[in-house]
Amino acid sequence: MAKQKCIPHLLRDMLRVEKYEKPGRRWQRFAKKLRRLLRDAMRLNKHSERGAPDYESKRQRIHIRLQELLDRPWKDRNARRLVKRLRRHQNEMFTFLDHPEVPYDNNTAERGIRPAVIIRKNSYANRSEKGADIQAVLMSIFRTLKQRGHNPLTTIVSALRTYLLTGELPPLPEKSCC
Q1: pLDDT per position as a tens digit, 2-26
Q2: Are residues 94 and 133 in the same domain?
Q3: Are 62 and 94 contacting, i.e. CB atoms less than 8 angstroms apart?
Q4: Does residue 40 fall inside a structural domain?
């Protein structure tokens, strides 16, 4: 499975440096180059036709620009820290340009776990590791049922009735047709 690092998270990390660190010209030069590179990659993904004559050359140019950015000896400590991270994840930066099914962000995944995070916050976190494990399992089951088009509460009550009668839990129901 191809992995993709979340581009908006990287851009947010850069904003955090600018907000809290008050960096100098060296950081600004680095940040400008990196932002332009990331935005060019997102623009290429959004506005270019894969397989078009210029798509492949633009995609390769983006990889070259990333390599040039990583090879340069940056003097700013924040730039060096970020370059170290980019080197570690270099092969996961532009997966979305090679695989159209891979998004450049992880918004879908974050939206998927948001209900569980809100429940955890509202209940003042889990009181134990066992409680955290149970919540993780229950939230996974609830989310799977919802994605398959079932009412989670009704389905779980029905499963518990079956368990009480037979001593066995039924499998998760398949995706509903409508």
Answers
A1: 788 889 999 999 999 998 888 889 9
A2: no
A3: yes
A4: yes
